[in-house]
Each structure stands twice: as C-alpha cells, then as structure tokens.
C-alpha cells in the first residue's frame, strides 16, 4: 500500500480520483495504527498527582492508590503509557507518609494516652514514600512545570488522563484565583446538594485553617474509644460526626445563589481547592487556567477522588467558571463526590481489603480485578463488550458502600444549563418514573433501576419513594445514635474515674513529659497496668465499648443506605435535566452536552484485561 503511494507521488500530476485514493489510503493507515495501539487516540498520556499537604495528612492509602493504578495499567497492557507521577515531597528521603502502627490497644502507653491523654497520633507511625518511580513533588510549581512539559509533547488528537488522589477543601475566597495558588482565608459559596444529601461531615463555614482543612485531622477517621482505637477506620466513619435528621436541616444553606430566568435556583460557583504538598493548594480556576494552555485538540479526562472534588467539574467551563460558558477544550471528569461534601478514603490503615473509596471501585470496574487481586466482573451496561469510563463510574455509584455521592461532568453541566421550572411541559423528579426512564440512557436506566431494586422502590413517583425511604433510615439512625451518645457519656465518666485513680497513685503521670513518668512506664509498667485493668469499672468500660462499636456499625450502615438513596435522587434529577434541555430546544447546550457525554463514554483502553493463569 505504501509502495503504491510512493509510485503515485512520482507522477508529475494527479487527477482528482488519484488524490481521493491517496487521502483514503492515508486515513486507513492512520486508523489501523491507532487501533493497533488499542485506543482511539493518537497517544495517551497520564498525569498522577497524589499525597497530602503534610506528613500527618499524607496517609498510606494515597500511596496505595497510586500503586493500584499502576497495576491497572499493567493488567490492561498499557503500562508503557507515557506518564508522570507527582507524589507528596517527590524524591525526598525525609519522612512524609503516615500509617497505622497496629499497636495493641491494651499496650500501657495506649491505655494511658486514652485515660490521661493526650491521645492524638498515638496510633500512627511515619516513613518515607516507597513508590518506585516519582517524577516530582505534588506542589503547584511542579504541577505547572509538568503540564508545560506535557504541552510540548502532546500533539493534536493525543489525550491526557489526570488522576488526583489526595485531599480537597472548599473555596477559600470569592477572588482566590487573583491571589495566586495559595489562598488561605475567606469563604465562597459552594454548589448546593439537595437537603437530603447533606455532607456527612461538613467543613465549618467560618473556621480557622486548622478546623476547616479536612486533611489536617487524619486521626478523626479513627476515633472509637481508646481500647478499640487500634482498629483504624477511614473518613467514612460517619457515626461520630454525621449531621443528619434535624441537625442536618438546621445547617444554613449558602446565601449567594442566583435565580436565572425560568425560576430555578442555580448552584453557586464552587471554586474548590486541592490541597498540595507543603500546605499549598490549587483552586478550580487556577487548575483550569493551566489546562487551558494545552492545545484545544487534546481531550482531557480527569478522575479526582478528594473531598469536595465535584467542584473540579467546573473545569469544563472557560477559566473554570460556569459564568464564562463551556470551554473550547474538550474535557470530562469523574469525581468521588459532590462539591459540598467530604469523600471516603484517606486512611492510615495498611490493610487494603478495608479500603472503601471511589478509586477502588472505579479501577476494579475498568480492569476486572480488585485492589486485593480478586476477580471482578467489569460492567458492560450497553453490551458492547467493553467498559467505558462512564460505565466504571456507574458501577461505583451502584456498588460503593461509602459516604460519597459520585458525580460526572454531565451532572455539573446540566445543573447550570437546564431547569425544571419556568416552562410548560418540563419534567420534575416527581414525574412518573416510567416517563423519566424513557429519556434515560442505557447507563442511566441501569443505575436508576439497580438502586430502586436494592431498596425495593416500585412507586410511580420514585423521587417521593426515595424521600420516604431516607426519612425512615434517618429516623432509625437517630434512635441508634441517641443510644451511642448515652453510652459514650458513661464511658467518658469511667475513663475519668480510672484516670483519676492512676494520678492519685502517681501524681507525676498527669504530665507525659515528666521524667518520672518515663521511668514508671519503663520500670513499673506492671504496677501501673494493674491499677488500670483491676479497677472495679474497667470491665464495665470494655463491655460498653463493645456495645458502642456494634451500635456505631449499625448507625453507619443506615447512613450508607441514606447516601445510596441520595445517589438515586441525584441520578433522577440528572435524567430530568437532560430531558428538559431537549424540551427547551436549546440546541447550543444540547450540542455541548453531547460533546461531554461522548468523551465520558470513551475507554481507558480497547485491550482486554490480562487473564490470570490457572492455579
């Protein structure tokens, strides 16, 4: 074929048919070349950014997420993809990673930390990251320089895939983008989720940095009472900190929300941030402005799993702001949760079998293997023999038992472009469900029907079914939480009593830094332990703690049920908004929606996962 082309090029002139044949031949050669690489894109590039802003919030799960992605690439036969990995402090050998030391909860130091204090961080140890290849630190300057390198390498038709596994926060100020990449104060209204979908652990709206930064308190995820504290959990430990029921309803809604023509309230612009190394950060607008420097011919697919990650769905808009309209650059993304909600994950737990977060489900759907090596049936809702990014996202929505309400860029776009009021004939989530699913895609229908089956919801008004189920679950949870609080009060009283007995015997132990305290722990450990474990109320405390643990688990399961119901409501709303956009005959936004949805339905690879050898 190529030799034929060479002969044709030797001719002094070519007629129209010759030129057509040459053009078609070149097109076929290019197409075959792309197919041979297992992708529709000329070349794929991958940027992974991970880690926390400081060692005490740089949990081992973040490192393990990066490792898991590398295994996914290997299983899909694309481990040779051109990629850069930026993680915490880069190649620095200094200690930067936190992990659970798995100490015995009845170790004397653990008991004293719990009974007398302080207990912060007593469970955790630190080491340097052990990732075999790291190309730089996860800080704003390195990210910017890395994107510049990609810009020089990416050609038209190439694709950039971005994975961020770290911590995130709400916007720090309405004009944060004008203050450079390290905004540190102020508040900005954020996109609002429905009243039934309030965050499990909200960031205070007017707090200091130490309180508002969710990544600064990793020990919050492991706060059962001290005797069982060594059993680490992750950020989805909802029973200690969830605001549900009446408490959730008392939370103030953001005040700065605009009402567009048509009557619906538009969600406020969520210029959220990702926390980066050395306590720096980068906002949605700053991130988008850096991506804007790439060629408009380079599609970008993002997977971001930090708290408040849904705010980064705004990168589909010019300069990251919906007010500017859709960007020229083709982009789509999948995010662990909505813009005003914390996400599951980020745990010092070293046991990956316990990980319950977006990456675990999303990547196992793509490659057919869990992070612990178990075989998983990859989703294929449209029966085309492959698993798209969108199908992996839908699988996560259906499967994940987490506090997350995952979102994609079409969700974000529709909540700015469409409406449910202000025009005759528009649908609402309370419209008959049979009518709604007529407008749903195959994937959307699979999610709606799957979640409905899980909770045995069969009513015509499916949104009303969801609201009733949420109220029931929250009422059940509230009763359990009340019992947990009562028992924790009892445990706190017992702890004070036992601690007082220890300090009465050895007054110096009120200070963990007193030299005599160190001597007692080293030389008279048995005597100190005896005062604790032989206290008349020690056995009672352990029994109460076991009951609290069980009740907390029941409460958590109720909360996770509520979250799954909230996901169903969210997807119903998306289907409604998509249908209404068509009814509004908004051709420009329909074309924009189609472009985003098409990119969301692409694949990480067309190569089948590597089959495991028979054992």
UniProtKB/TrEMBL annotation:
Region (Disordered): 168-270
Parts forming coiled coils: 538-568
Lineage: superkingdom: Bacteria
Bias-annotated ranges (Basic and acidic residues): 210-223, 246-264
Comp. bias (Low complexity): 174-186
Alphabetized UniProt keyword annotations: Coiled coil
Protein name: Uncharacterized protein
Protein's organism: Planctopirus hydrillae
């Amino acid at each position: 074929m190529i030799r034929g082309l060479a002969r044709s090029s030797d001719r002094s002139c070519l007629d129209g048919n010759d030129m057509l044949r040459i053009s078609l031949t070149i097109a076929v050669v290019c197409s075959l070349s792309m197919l041979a690489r297992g992708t529709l894109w000329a070349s794929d590039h991958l940027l992974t950014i991970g880690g926390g802003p400081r060692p005490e919030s740089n949990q081992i799960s973040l490192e393990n997420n990066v490792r898991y992605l590398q295994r996914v690439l290997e299983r899909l036969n694309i481990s040779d993809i051109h990629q850069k990995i930026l993680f915490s402090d880069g190649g620095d050998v200094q200690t930067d990673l936190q992990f659970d030391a798995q100490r015995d909860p009845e170790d004397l130091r653990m008991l004293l930390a719990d009974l007398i204090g302080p207990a912060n961080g007593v469970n955790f140890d630190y080491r340097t990251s052990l990732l075999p290849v790291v190309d730089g630190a996860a800080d704003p300057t390195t990210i910017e320089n890395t994107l510049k390198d990609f810009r020089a390498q990416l050609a038209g038709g190439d694709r950039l895939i971005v994975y961020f596994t770290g911590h995130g926060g709400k916007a720090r100020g309405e004009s944060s983008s004008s203050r450079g990449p390290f905004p540190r104060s102020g508040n900005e209204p954020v996109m609002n989720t429905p009243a039934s979908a309030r965050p499990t652990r909200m960031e205070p709206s007017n707090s200091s940095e130490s309180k508002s930064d969710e990544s600064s308190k990793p020990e919050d995820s492991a706060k059962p009472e001290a005797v069982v504290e060594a059993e680490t959990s992750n950020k989805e430990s909802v029973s200690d900190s969830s605001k549900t029921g009446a408490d959730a309803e008392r939370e103030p809604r953001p005040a700065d929300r605009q009402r567009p023509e048509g009557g619906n309230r538009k969600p406020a612009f969520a210029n959220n941030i990702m926390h980066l190394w050395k306590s720096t950060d980068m906002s949605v607008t700053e991130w988008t402005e850096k991506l804007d420097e790439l060629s408009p011919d380079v599609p970008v697919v993002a997977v971001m799993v930090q708290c408040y990650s849904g705010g980064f769905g705004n990168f589909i808009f010019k300069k990251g702001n919906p007010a500017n309209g859709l960007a020229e650059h083709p982009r789509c993304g999948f995010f662990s949760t909505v813009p005003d909600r914390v996400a599951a994950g980020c745990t010092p737990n070293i046991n990956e079998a316990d990980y319950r977060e977006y990456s675990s489900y999303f990547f196992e759907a793509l490659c057919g293997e869990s992070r612990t090596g178990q075989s998983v049936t990859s989703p294929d809702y449209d029966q085309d023999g492959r698993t798209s990014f969108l199908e992996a996202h839908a699988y996560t929505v259906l499967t994940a038992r987490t506090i997350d309400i995952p979102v994609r860029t079409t969700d974000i776009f529709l909540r700015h472009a469409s409406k449910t009021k202000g025009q005759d004939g528009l649908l609402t989530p309370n419209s008959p469900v049979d009518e709604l699913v007529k407008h749903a895609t195959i994937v959307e229908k699979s999610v709606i029907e799957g979640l409905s089956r899980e909770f045995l919801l069969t009513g015509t008004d499916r949104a009303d079914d969801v609201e009733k189920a949420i109220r029931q679950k929250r009422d059940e949870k509230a009763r359990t939480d009340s019992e947990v609080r009562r028992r924790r009060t009892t445990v706190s009283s017992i702890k004070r009593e036992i601690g007082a007995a220890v300090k009465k015997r050895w007054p110096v132990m009120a200070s963990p830094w007193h030299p005599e305290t160190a001597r007692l722990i080293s030389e008279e450990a048995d005597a100190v332990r005896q005062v604790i474990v032989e206290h008349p109320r020690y056995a009672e405390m352990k029994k109460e703690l076991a009951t609290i643990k069980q009740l907390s688990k029941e409460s958590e399961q109720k909360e996770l049920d509520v979250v799954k119901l909230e996901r169903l409501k969210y997807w119903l709303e998306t289907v409604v908004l998509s249908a209404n956009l068509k009814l509004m005959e908004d051709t420009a936004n329909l074309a924009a929606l189609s472009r985003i949805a098409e990119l969301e339905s692409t694949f990480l690879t067309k190569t089948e996962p590597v089959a495991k050898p028979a054992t």
